[in-house]
Amino acid sequence: MRIAIVGTGGIARVHRRIIRDLGGELVGVCGRSRAAAAALAPVPAYDDLAAMLDEQRPDVLHVCTPNHLHEAHALAGFAAGAHVLCEKPMATSLAAAERMIEAAVRAGRIGAVAYNYRGYPLVAALRRKVREGVFGALRRVSGCYLSEDGFDPAKYMWHFTPGSVGPGYALMDVGVHWLDLVEHVTGERIVEIAAQLSIHQRERIWRGGEGQGPRPPGHMAEDGSVRVMVDVEDQVDLLVRLSGGGGGSATISCVSVGHPNTIVLSVDGALKGFDWNQEEPNTYRERSVDGTLIRQRAPSLMAAEEADLTALPAGHAEGYIDAFRNIVAAAWAGMRGETDAFPTFADGLRGIRLVEAAVTSAREKRAIAVG
Amino acid sequence: MRIAIVGTGGIARVHRRIIRDLGGELVGVCGRSRAAAAALAPVPAYDDLAAMLDEQRPDVLHVCTPNHLHEAHALAGFAAGAHVLCEKPMATSLAAAERMIEAAVRAGRIGAVAYNYRGYPLVAALRRKVREGVFGALRRVSGCYLSEDGFDPAKYMWHFTPGSVGPGYALMDVGVHWLDLVEHVTGERIVEIAAQLSIHQRERIWRGGEGQGPRPPGHMAEDGSVRVMVDVEDQVDLLVRLSGGGGGSATISCVSVGHPNTIVLSVDGALKGFDWNQEEPNTYRERSVDGTLIRQRAPSLMAAEEADLTALPAGHAEGYIDAFRNIVAAAWAGMRGETDAFPTFADGLRGIRLVEAAVTSAREKRAIAVG
Amino acid sequence: MRIAIVGTGGIARVHRRIIRDLGGELVGVCGRSRAAAAALAPVPAYDDLAAMLDEQRPDVLHVCTPNHLHEAHALAGFAAGAHVLCEKPMATSLAAAERMIEAAVRAGRIGAVAYNYRGYPLVAALRRKVREGVFGALRRVSGCYLSEDGFDPAKYMWHFTPGSVGPGYALMDVGVHWLDLVEHVTGERIVEIAAQLSIHQRERIWRGGEGQGPRPPGHMAEDGSVRVMVDVEDQVDLLVRLSGGGGGSATISCVSVGHPNTIVLSVDGALKGFDWNQEEPNTYRERSVDGTLIRQRAPSLMAAEEADLTALPAGHAEGYIDAFRNIVAAAWAGMRGETDAFPTFADGLRGIRLVEAAVTSAREKRAIAVG
Amino acid sequence: MRIAIVGTGGIARVHRRIIRDLGGELVGVCGRSRAAAAALAPVPAYDDLAAMLDEQRPDVLHVCTPNHLHEAHALAGFAAGAHVLCEKPMATSLAAAERMIEAAVRAGRIGAVAYNYRGYPLVAALRRKVREGVFGALRRVSGCYLSEDGFDPAKYMWHFTPGSVGPGYALMDVGVHWLDLVEHVTGERIVEIAAQLSIHQRERIWRGGEGQGPRPPGHMAEDGSVRVMVDVEDQVDLLVRLSGGGGGSATISCVSVGHPNTIVLSVDGALKGFDWNQEEPNTYRERSVDGTLIRQRAPSLMAAEEADLTALPAGHAEGYIDAFRNIVAAAWAGMRGETDAFPTFADGLRGIRLVEAAVTSAREKRAIAVG
After folding, report:
1. Is the dihedral of CA D289, D291, D292, D296 positive or negative?
2. Has the keyword Disulfide bond been applied to this entry (chains A, B, C, D) (predicted)?
């Protein structure tokens, strides 16, 4: 596969490594500057996406730019005949996500979303076990996504610049992952959602460093900094009702100190329960009347159709990159028409729909039914 | 102190042991039958509360009966000039709780509620540390109370008999503890609550065993059993907003297999965070930018005024009885006029108020402000 | 039972509380001073053991003094017709332990040793499960006893005064517990031992504070302190071979920072394995080919003959005092002739024998067979 | 780098993946059969090592064959002018290891050993912190390597065939890793060792499956199986004394059920202690008088010279492959003359020396000084 990347930040570096590990051919990188693009990989560097697409004609465009640029970059990719693997969240509004899907259909190309946490072998195994009825009818689906990414009040990220991140910060940056995992693993739909939003860190100072994005609107101080009043939440508390009748609560926060990237999915069924935590992704806990069984990821735990997801014996930890590889590999296979088991643009749109419902719920202080 | 107990179930046995450990004089036990009362302790046994109070004239009546009897039993105690230590939840309605407070005032006696989980030394230490500002302004207050007490569908408890437990099962049986811990430890008030209720196990069979209470209304089958349709939730998902601006989510369940009695309080502040779990009550986790510090309960961790709460060095586990003792001792000291640092009837009423708000919220599918 | 205590330190306070909780009648306390004795409990206070025994004629003498006094105090107890419950280690030499046993036999009285860690319900349950063959033939019996009791170089305890503690510090103060647990739980004998001793903190300063014992020999500095060169190990590394063919290693240390009282017993059998840690005494881990099952202490886990050892449901933590109570209750029952299931003087002597073998092994740098 | 692999088992698959991830050019694979070699990778396949080396002239030969073949294969590699990256243990005897070193010197080529567990970022960070004095003088260095690889009595591996594995099974297969980590992280030498060996599973049945190696000597039953009496230990208990005065114990086992690959390094110093477990390689525990701090692997935790070892932010788990990559990358860099910070043949020989000392100690039941 001939791959191009647009975007040069931390997540672009992850894509670059995985493209190489999977034997993909990286044919171009486009950044805000050619220097930034050149720093990512020793391949042709661009600061003009159209030019890159025109010259390199990639099979796939990996979109690793800030949220509000996903739509334009994906559309450019489709227009150039490429498939698109887009970082999450897919877009900053439902309407934009719908336009992206239309563009994909029009171009006859595949759109995939980097819901990378689906790629853990145990996530796949748990999804299957739920489907097989191991846990019985699902009753409780709780958990959290706690991150300390925004904890330091002195830290600025492009997300804080109004208009960049979409209708939520915690919701859009990490919450979509949790919501996607819930629906993906349970095989059910969230049919009702109630949310409560908090902006704990209301003021941030842009100073123009790496990852801070272009200068936000506002008065620039003598030292070149700009004070930004953050208008998106950094914590969201959620109630969810599932199509099968289960319910649960979760808190999503980007200002939870001591939580580097804690994604917990905790489920009770009528027969058994389970808990999985992304920070220790090689085990899960299966609860029953006998107690709590810590099970290890191992090739022997997987079903035949999951065999490609894991290779190492138990006790030989797999990690974030291994899981992300699985998703990129699945998306590429989907683009080659070999599978439909990958996170699609429809899944990406679903995340935006749930985020918008949560925002409405918080504003109106009532539960919102989700179609 | 001369103590009498009304009630003979499992929690009455806990009270009996603690009364002895604290050097209290148990002067009488009253049960549904004199045999049940006699089985609890080798002291005068009654099946008539008025008779026991009249003959024994206890200083304190410990009310360990099902919820819907708390009011009548407390009122009888006050009428006989006794102080009352009442099991939680204090009553089955706000109105009943108010009548109990009026009775106490009228009698010039003290009413205390057995919010025993306040009695853990680390709960006291965390409450103080919050007050001292160690964690900064509180942002997130999440957690859970997960129990498997009602998981077995074949299990019947008096709680399932309509009219016995009050407006909720999970809420009343265990939820009040979590809500009380939140307000107690944070020193803040829950000012808004949103809830979602589930009845996962709708049908239960009464068979007349121990702890199942008297025969519920309904058709008795040939084998002497009665089928009961449960009308109270066994799971509740909550959103809470605190007076200081923090927020959080929690799930309370009595049907969560593999969770014997998991009470978690998880808090983020602007400076640090902490987590405490009742199942491992001798440690807590203090989160900061350096990582997560596991701190041990130890006398050296306590402030001077907390010195009575713990005696053993770190590594020598204290448990449920040790914590419960602290609360009984504090309540008795309160009754002797030596302290006001114990869970009062006002705290008991507060629990009922929050439960009623949660029930209203779930019914109306909207957030409810709490006075 | 009419009980007297000799000794007034921290462990005497534990005995005092348990005596009361069990309904024992405390009839006298003897200390180095009458003031110290009076401070322990509001009962007759003595500074002369013979006088206390003569005046109070207790049924049982609890010996809570430093190790080198155990022999004389136990002999005095037996001479006065009392049973003796002696703190561990039983004596400072094998010869002394043998004399104590002879005195008990001569007096027709029972000698028991406070191997309190046997009192945990899960220790009893694991001992039974081993006997039942749940784990298969035992292969590995490893673990540790890690304490930070002696970590602070500025801390002085009577143990450091030459002649007080016996042939080892870590071995005698905590190691005997681990060795006893190994033989108690496995039901096997340690038949060979190899040891390596370390004195990491060679110098300590006596200042005459509480728990530091009388002034040690040596030059007293102007500030009243005495410098003591410690001649007993604070860390011992062990290899053990069991009678059934299993083997294992362990490290015992009193200078292991961050380990308040970590006692681990980790066992592999031919069928399953288990791990138990005194710091979280309400669970154990049962390892099998399916993974690691965390089992909860619960009355339902116990056999009929173990029913008295635990009362609380799972999730309601029991602790150090609950376990210690079980051992005192068993010892008293033994003294009343009701049971022989308690730690006897023979078990106490066994500990000294193993310690002496370890000391010999370390000195001669070879494995020592133990009879 | 042009790389060739000899060997086609599980560890060869790990090397193959890492060679590709690092951008190495795999030029040939040699196996017991050309089919096995061809199955490993789509590159020229051989069943004759000399032919592969002659035709492909690789820069590096990765030796992934059973232990007793390491010497011959490494010598062949050097003779063909290749550098050699050899799997552990380096050889089956000290003499063989010495011959391999001589061959490397003669050829002017580099020999490296795949001590892959050194490659974890936290192992590097802890090694540096020890050197910086963060923990103070080291006192206790304990731990374990527990594996269930040989637990199933029905499982046969080539290791059980006499003559294949060297003087020990647990020692050679996994023990060398633990011994290497001790010396690598502490920066000290093990100067004395005492060991106790056990053969818990004495009989195994060869059936000729994958990974079982060629037919062992002995009578073949009608079903084609051969009964083998295992003459190497599956568990070893160790005492070690370090050059700096510290000491510790460890148990190494390959029959410890429920332990997929538990490698623990637990260290006490005069100031602080730490614990690291390979199964959760992204955190370590730093113990101090304040408690136990769980620290996360993160780029910010590393020193400048360690920056290449880790790329992902905290909470984004790195795993076994990431660590192994670091070692292969370091070895290749060493072969290019860019670094000497990689596990060398001298380190490999050191492992064999320690194993031989342990075996002697167990046979003679005494502690053995190690040069």
Report:
1. negative
2. no
Contacts of B13 in chain C (CB under 8 A): 311
DSSP state of B172: I
Sort strands C190-198 and A235-242 into parallel, antiparallel or unpaired.
unpaired
Residue B331 belongs to some domain of the structure? no
- Segment B113-135 shows an average pLDDT of 98
Whether C94 and C157 map to the same domain: the answer is: no
SS3 D301: helix
Segment C186-203, tens digit of pLDDT: 999 999 999 999 999 999
CATH, residue A215: 3.30.360.10
Both B66 and B122 in a single domain? no
**Does the complex come out with an ipTM higher than 0.90?**
yes
Of B109, B140, B174, the one marking the end of a domain is B109
Q: What's the pLDDT score for residue D152?
A: 96
Beta bridge partners of D195: D238
Digit-coded pLDDT (tens) for C133-167: 999 999 999 999 999 999 999 999 999 999 899 99
Among B196, B200, B245, select the one facing A239 at the smallest CB separation.
Answer: B196
Chain C residue numbers with beta carbons less than 8 Å from the beta carbon of D239 are 194-196, 237-239, 249
> Do C50 and C168 sit in the same domain of this protein?
no
Distance between CA atoms of residues A49 and A60, nearest Å: 13
* Host domain of residue B86: 2-109
Same domain, D148 and D297: yes
CA distances from B77 to A71, A247, B85, B166 (A): 71, 42, 10, 21
Chain A residues in contact with D23 by the CB 8 A cut-off are: 20
Q: Contact B139/A239, CB-based, under 8 Å?
A: no
A85 φ, ψ (degrees, to nearest 5): -110, 110
Q: What pLDDT score does C371 carry? A: 86
Dihedral sign, Cα of residue C38, residue C43, residue C49, residue C54: positive
Which residue matches tokens 């437990």? B165
Label residue B371 by pLDDT band (50, 70, 90): confident
Verify whether the Cβ–Cβ distance D249 to C259 is below 8 Å.
no
Chain D hits for A317, Cβ within 8 Å: 278-281, 317-320
pLDDT, tens digit (0-9, with 9 covering 90-100), for D159-187: 999 989 999 999 999 999 999 999 999 99
User: Does B155 lie in the same domain as B78?
Assistant: no
Q: What percent of chain B has pLDDT over 90?
A: 98
Please count the other Cβ atoms lying within 10 Å of the Cβ belonging to residue B106: 11
Among C262, C296, C301, C321, most B C-beta atoms within 10 A, so best to mutate, is: C321
Give a yes or no: residue C231 inside a domain.
Answer: yes
Going by C-alpha positions, the residue among B217, B89, B97, B230 that lies closest to residue B155 is B230
A350 domain residue, yes or no: yes
Strand-strand pairing, B60-63 and B2-6: parallel
Q: Which of C247, C273, C285 sits opposite D235 (nearest CB)?
A: C247
Residues D161, D292 within the same domain: yes
CB contact under 8 A, C196 and D367: yes
**Interface residues of chain A, partner chain C, Cβ below 8 Å:** 290-296
CB contact under 8 A, D273 and C255: no
Name the β-bridge partners of D2. D25
Domain count, chain C: 2
Distance CA D297, CA D300 (A): 8
Q: Is residue A334 part of a domain?
A: no
pLDDT exceeds 90 at position A242: yes
Question: Which CATH number belongs to the domain containing residue D72 in this structure?
Answer: 3.40.50.720
**Domain finish residue from C63, C92, C109:** C109
Alpha carbon D356 to its chain centroid, in Å, reads 16
> Nearest Cβ partner of C140 from D240, D256, D289?
D256
Tens digits of residue pLDDT in C46-86: 999 999 999 999 999 999 999 999 999 999 999 999 999 99
C49 and C124, same domain (yes or no): no
